[in-house]
Amino acid sequence: MTFEDTWKPKIDAYRAKLDEEVGPYKALVEGIDYSSENFNAVEALDTLLTEKDREITNSTAKQLVAKQRDGTLTAVEIYNAFAKRGAIAHIFTNCAMELFFQEGLERAKELDKYREDHNGELVGPFHGLPISLKELMKYGGKVTTAGFVCYLDNYISNSPREESVSIQILRKLGAVFYMRTAQPQSVMHLDTDNAITGRTSNPFNRKISPGGSSGGESAAVAMGSSVFGIGSDIGGSIRVPAAFCGLYGIRPTTKRVSGLGSLSGGAGQESIFSSQGPLTRTIDDLEYYMVNYINMGKPWEYDPNTIPLEWKTGVSLPETVTYGILLTDTLVEPSDAIKRGLAYVQDKLRDYKGKKVDVKVITIDHDLMKEAFKQTLQIYGTSKPVHDKLFAISNEPLLPLTKFFLGFANPEENDILTNNNIKEQFKYYMYYLFKDQGIDFLISPTNPNVGEVPKNLTHWNYSSMFNLIDFPNIIFRTGLTFDPKVDVKGPTNVTDYNANDYVNAPINLQLTALRFEDEKLVEGVKLLDKALELA
Amino acid sequence: MTFEDTWKPKIDAYRAKLDEEVGPYKALVEGIDYSSENFNAVEALDTLLTEKDREITNSTAKQLVAKQRDGTLTAVEIYNAFAKRGAIAHIFTNCAMELFFQEGLERAKELDKYREDHNGELVGPFHGLPISLKELMKYGGKVTTAGFVCYLDNYISNSPREESVSIQILRKLGAVFYMRTAQPQSVMHLDTDNAITGRTSNPFNRKISPGGSSGGESAAVAMGSSVFGIGSDIGGSIRVPAAFCGLYGIRPTTKRVSGLGSLSGGAGQESIFSSQGPLTRTIDDLEYYMVNYINMGKPWEYDPNTIPLEWKTGVSLPETVTYGILLTDTLVEPSDAIKRGLAYVQDKLRDYKGKKVDVKVITIDHDLMKEAFKQTLQIYGTSKPVHDKLFAISNEPLLPLTKFFLGFANPEENDILTNNNIKEQFKYYMYYLFKDQGIDFLISPTNPNVGEVPKNLTHWNYSSMFNLIDFPNIIFRTGLTFDPKVDVKGPTNVTDYNANDYVNAPINLQLTALRFEDEKLVEGVKLLDKALELA
């Protein structure tokens, strides 16, 4: 059976369904040339919204829930406003793999009815909130592909032992679903392009990547398709998309959020675990998600691999907060834009008068970093034989970044004891670096550059070093955007840098804390927001 | 350099130091033939104690702390009573690798002085409590060997980044140390015998093993050398010794207790983690240790791999408590003694009037169990190359059970993805078995037999199946002991069973709960203690 005969028709059917869903919304964007090279979808979108659309979809989760509670907004009104943005988002960026508007609407109606029948009581903290889901999360009653062509017939039953635990939790707490978002082939790119639904583009600039692997999410959330977009991250897959699309995004300490019921080609690789978390437009939404998902959702009641650790509320920062700044991983020098962002944050923190803040430049040992990155790639490479098998089933054409990933390591030369021993060595090195330097947080690049062109997304270390040691991270906004006049130099791993490619790209950075300090990390970002005059 | 020329003199020096420490106590045991075949050290010990010795050393931790607080006992009095039992324990069973009585006494004096200087205030919840330590815990200012001859020069500095985190915590909370206990060569036997200090025997019957690898601990604690004996367990190493010596012993869910600073030949093997925990003579002492070690010790402040999960106090059991009973792992049929213990517990639970209790016999799928055990051995085998190297350094003669362990698996044929995928499959199988059957706890054998003769300690699965899936366990007493008249059949893996070998061996069993339900598990054992009329 060839790819063309067997699988191409399935792909066509899958895409036809997606096109059919979005069809009625095409009229909305009439006259807009969204295929132009540096197309800014965010800007174009804004012209298509009514004042009411804006008011609803730019509200925080907390506000939307409060307005449903007091009866000033219905779930259906909320749904309609977000779904409009979601449809436009998909037309402009190709962020979705699956759309089901009618189901979303029915669900919103059902939630409004529940409220009516229960004297204004809501189902839960996510009542009526549209949430977009990375497609690899197994959705009961639908096919889940994780971007693999061979999974195009992978129908998921409604059994609670098959469907994604997080989907079950979010549904129970009142969420509305209508969009499942794209991930790249193999789910192991820092870009988003697959052989089923194709490329997703960055909403700020069509030429560059939205990041990956949760790049469907980052494009969708940046366009305001949902209140929360649920991504997952084993090497940067929440953070790079969040950074490239100007969002907040958390990669929590692993096993605080359940990943049970996610499809992956990497099952059994346990040296680096994947972590699931939300991408949002505000830090308040991010915090709202974490506290409610964990404390109300209690994922450990569904999944023995999830730690029964409540989200601590009311965490306060020390009297003096010390931010370490990592300017380079010593392997690839970041671009001018990233350097400018780091310098700007340093200046703003030093000038901040609202709280005592210290800033310290931190350096990492080059040899250890190099070895740790080498082992990181070896670890990812462990799953190559599984990926080879999955691709062989369909014979789908392999994208350049898939081939790049499959070359990370030779699993036959791999030594699990060395992988893990170097990992532990680097973990304790970083742990004691925090302790010895007295830093509460570490600010660092998420990637060598801002929203990169796809083929240059080859240096994972700025994000993956924290997967290796499982220190939690949040991507935060600096408020700056790429400027071709001053950001003249690219990162040292890019040989064909052209400053005009990156126009409008947001400059976001990464904040890291020690393991299990996720709550403190949120406070660290709130303080940054204040110092950067974003809050 | 040969073993005889280089290493034998170091072994001799190490043993001479141990003999020198215990020398002054030899007079205590004069006239007792403790080398006779079925020697019962526990019985012999009892004749050597004064009423006051008994009163002190048979008190619980809570009582000893209360008496120091109200001034009716000093730390020195407590120390002297326990040290006497510890010295006799070592003479009778060879349980210690290192003894340092003078240091213990000085420490007890220091604690008494602290109390005097602070108006009766104590250092912490372990004030003045003698605690014995498995020797593989790195002790500042001493050599740590983990039973490997090649580590006889492995001096540990006093740096808090080198010494065992748990030793630091216990010291900070007031513990008194004077004994480090034996573990087997490679630390991978369910027996205790090594090329440095030789064989440890079971205090109830010299002919049989005290269990292993924490068999120095089980012998020491059964003899009353300490209030708590700290062991570690990657395949049964706390539980088998606790069971064989009539003790309580917990293998907590991994990463609730810090194992940082323990020496091991298995570093880098992360599919099955080791777990550290106490062996005690009462469930109250076990609970006292866990609540104070975790909540007062806060091990996560020293170790990024330890989960900041407080020990919940005041956990209550459901209205009806359901105990599942696993009679066989389907691979090896247990001995008559074990079967008698299981039947007795069932009867006692069914007759119990103090609380509603249900008992359900549970069976496990044979094929999955077989495959899970196969992968368990493959996982342990991953560290064979490291062990080979460690043994090659000294050329120490390999004991039969070391050779047995080194044959567990061929690491070159190993497949980490298969290891972990089967592990997860078995974990969810057992998780859903608990859920579907509605059981709170599972009662099962710890080993196919009670206190076995060393060479027959070859079937690890009754203990190791729970390491594989990381469900916590506590060993509990049935109150029964081996009876050669009725316990006529051995387990099916033993071909030369002789009922006379096991006289006086306690019949203990294993209780298991779901992951992170360690607190509930303690309540489950307390209820068993009541039903079995032991409390």
From TrEMBL, chains A, B:
<feature type="active site" description="Charge relay system">
    <location>
        <position position="213"/>
    </location>
</feature>
<dbReference type="GO" id="GO:0004040">
    <property type="term" value="F:amidase activity"/>
</dbReference>
<protein>
    <recommendedName>
        <fullName>amidase</fullName>
        <ecNumber>3.5.1.4</ecNumber>
    </recommendedName>
</protein>
<feature type="domain" description="Amidase">
    <location>
        <begin position="78"/>
        <end position="521"/>
    </location>
</feature>
<keyword id="KW-0378">Hydrolase</keyword>
<feature type="active site" description="Acyl-ester intermediate">
    <location>
        <position position="237"/>
    </location>
</feature>
<dbReference type="Pfam" id="PF01425">
    <property type="entry name" value="Amidase"/>
</dbReference>
<feature type="active site" description="Charge relay system">
    <location>
        <position position="134"/>
    </location>
</feature>
<comment type="similarity">
    <text>Belongs to the amidase family.</text>
</comment>
<dbReference type="InterPro" id="IPR023631">
    <property type="entry name" value="Amidase_dom"/>
</dbReference>
<dbReference type="InterPro" id="IPR020556">
    <property type="entry name" value="Amidase_CS"/>
</dbReference>
<dbReference type="InterPro" id="IPR036928">
    <property type="entry name" value="AS_sf"/>
</dbReference>
